[in-house]
Design brief:
Helices cover 44% and strands 14% of the residues. It has a 7-stranded parallel sheet with strand order 3-2-1-4-5-6-7, with helices on both faces. Helix 1 crosses helix 8. The protein has 274 residues and is of the alpha/beta class. It is built from 9 helices and 7 strands. Keywords: Oxidoreductase.
Length: 274
């Protein structure tokens, strides 16, 4: 039995591969970048199996799964970690191609892979699916438009799977991280503008990939009777900003002179005696 982790070439994925291997599990690390996977394979040894997979292409997912050796074909835990944010422009200016890529990876890829793995879990009446959502799936912020919406999809998909799979002894959790540094997340979002990416993490103690990896391992090692539906994790320094209200400029107050006011009062009194 193995743990299949997507997005294994960077950030959360690398940390989770290392953490699960160190805890004694067999890990299949799936990612696009073969060189990064090979480095990880050299570091982690026999317990780690590098699997080339592009989660943004269903054909690549299928081919990768078909290529798995017999002894690793049973997946006890699927960690849907691959995903990305692209851009922070408002919806009227965002690149539609970026939206398509996010939908393709964060939604289509995640659901396709889950659909491929679920039947074997159902047949065995055992398994665990851990999805990597985001606080962006629950809280709106400008520029999050489609990225946040894909993560809201992941959140609801996770809950809907819970509703279907509770009687199959399959656990589902949506991990929802907030500001987490030391990953490629912002470098990818800002398309290689490393300066802008670095500014996101300036002067703040952000969450580390290891925190997410430790959380995933903790979840996996809970008793089989226990399901954590979702777990939202922020750095202490990140919190809610409240509702923003954009107000119109107040209408200018018409100032009436004292003479005007008294004249109109005098006019009224005069009209009573007519
Ligand atoms: C990452 C968290 O706040 O950048 O999903 O959207 S955030």
């Amino acid at each position: 039995m193995a743990i299949l982790i997507t997005g294994a070439s960077a950030g959360f994925g690398v940390a989770m591969c290392r953490t699960f291997v160190a805890a004694g599990y067999h890990v299949i690390g799936a990612a696009r970048r073969e060189d990064k996977l090979q480095q990880l394979a050299e570091e982690l040894g026999e317990q780690f199996y590098p699997l080339e997979m592009d989660v943004s292409r269903t054909e690549s997912i299928q081919n990768a799964l078909n290529s798995l050796p017999e002894h690793l074909s049973e997946i006890d835990c699927l960690i849907n970690n691959a995903g990305l944010a692209l851009g922070l422009d408002t919806a009227d200016k965002a690149d539609f191609g970026d939206w398509e890529t996010m939908i393709q990876t964060n939604i289509i890829g995640l659901t396709f892979l889950t659909r491929q793995i679920l039947p074997q879990m159902v047949a065995r009446k055992q398994g665990y699916i851990i999805n990597l959502g985001s606080i962006a799936g629950s809280y709106a912020y400008p520029g999050s438009n489609v990225y946040g919406a894909t993560k809201a999809f992941v959140r609801q998909f996770s809950m809907n799977l819970r509703a279907e799979l509770a009687d199959k002894n399959i656990r589902i959790t949506n991990i929802e991280p907030g500001l987490c540094g030391d990953t490629e997340f912002s470098n990818v979002r800002f398309k290689g503008d490393d300066q802008r990416a670095a500014e996101v993490y300036e002067n703040v103690e952000f969450i580390q990939p290891q925190d997410i990896a430790d959380t995933a391992l903790w979840l996996y090692q809970r008793p089989a009777r226990m399901n954590v539906n979702s777990i939202e994790i922020m750095p202490v320094a990140q919190t809610f900003a409240g509702m923003k209200v954009y107000r119109d400029e107040p209408a200018p107050v018409k100032e009436e002179t004292f003479e005007k006011q008294s004249m109109s009062l005098f006019g009224k009194i005069k009209s009573w005696f007519k």
